[in-house]
User: Which sequence fits this backbone?
């Protein structure tokens, strides 16, 4: 089944053309890494997929539903979750409180009609289960602002998982992390269910090649190369961009 189908998507901000004719398609369970230099349009593409912005033209479908004009919550209800390039946590709250809020939000989206008290129990259980599953029990009562940046990124990924998404978009989850922290986040991504479709933006080619089934390279708002590791490593235009020839 096709999880995500992006057809000829263009996005302009006033006079700035951020995306030009982007076409990409992912099968369910596929892991695609988006590479590309600063300003290539990677985050803009994520915003268009999640509904944080609307494409100027083109069409996006999620598991067969046309979502091009849908708001973010409707897309989340169809199974989409994402993290942001800039940390999106409540710094003054604890790890557990942040996860509780995420679980709460995810349950709202599923419109579960149960008694409020049962619902509170449910939310607590789910939040604690997530902390356990992702080895964050010891951090449960720590304030997010006292966590290392790497730990914060891990909490964000767990929050995105709170609604059991079918497709997950990760915007540079390893940016600014130490090599050890990068390994931990990569370990999390590897541990995700194999049927979860993943699109990850990454700057480090080695990390990208390790995680990805397939790579797409963006440059100046376009997808300029797509394929497996050999295809990308052998692509002259990609080498030129990364060596700064262009
Ligand atoms: N809200 C906006 N208004 C105007 N221009 C924007 C807006 N958002 C993005 N752009 C422009 O669109 C282009 C693509 O930006 P985008 O953030 O998608 O790049 P990126 O590939 O994610 O880069 P980075 O690797 O630095 O995160 C850039 O030229 C950027 O300045
Ligand atoms: Mg970006």
Assistant:
């Amino acid at each position: 089944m096709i999880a995500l189908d992006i057809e000829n998507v263009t996005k302009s901000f006033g006079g700035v053309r951020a995306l030009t004719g982007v076409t990409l398609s992912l099968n369910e369970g596929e892991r695609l890494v988006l590479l590309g230099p600063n300003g290539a349009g990677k985050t803009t593409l994520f915003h268009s997929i999640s509904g944080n912005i609307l494409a100027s033209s083109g069409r996006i479908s999620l598991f067969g539903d046309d979502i091009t004009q849908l708001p973010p919550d409707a897309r989340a209800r169809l199974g989409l979750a994402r993290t942001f390039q800039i940390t999106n946590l409540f710094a003054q709250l604890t790890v557990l409180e942040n996860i509780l809020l995420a679980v709460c939000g995810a349950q709202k989206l599923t419109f579960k009609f149960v008694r409020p008290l049962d619902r509170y129990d449910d939310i607590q259980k789910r939040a604690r289960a997530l902390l356990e599953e992702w080895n964050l029990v010891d951090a449960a009562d720590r304030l997010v602002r006292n966590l290392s940046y790497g730990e914060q990124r891990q909490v964000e990924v767990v929050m995105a998982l709170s609604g059991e998404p079918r497709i997950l978009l990760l915007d540079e989850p390893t940016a600014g992390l130490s090599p050890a922290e990068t390994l931990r986040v990569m370990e999390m991504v590897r541990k995700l269910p194999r049927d979860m479709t993943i699109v990850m933006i990454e700057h480090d080619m080695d990390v990208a090649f390790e995680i990805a089934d397939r790579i797409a390279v963006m440059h100046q708002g376009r997808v300029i190369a797509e394929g497996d590791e050999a295809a990308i490593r052998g692509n002259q235009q990609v080498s030129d961009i990364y060596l700064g020839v262009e």
User: Anything to note?
Assistant: The first strand starts at residue 2 and ends at 13. The radius of gyration is 18 Å.
